[in-house]
Specification:
The protein contains two helices and five strands, in the order αβββββα. The chain has 85 residues and is α+β, with helices and mostly antiparallel strands. The protein has one domain.
Amino acid sequence: MIGIPHLDVGRRKMNKAYEDSIAHLEKNGWIRKNAGSYSKGSFEIVFDTSSFIELYDDSQKRIAETRICELSDTIEFLKKNKIGQ
């Protein structure tokens, strides 16, 4: 099967954003609960795909979600929701 070059580039970019975001979370004290789920204090971040993240509070209420295309999107999301890095 032959890949479509522009789609392959997009997938690689999303995977890099996901991997960079996970490394950033772990570096900043977020604890991996399971594949694609990290917690810190009373918050939980869930990667529902490699390009979208959701933020939940301790009552399991979804507070926010966003698409991530690069690490700076994750950092901005954390700042915007006032939960630190």
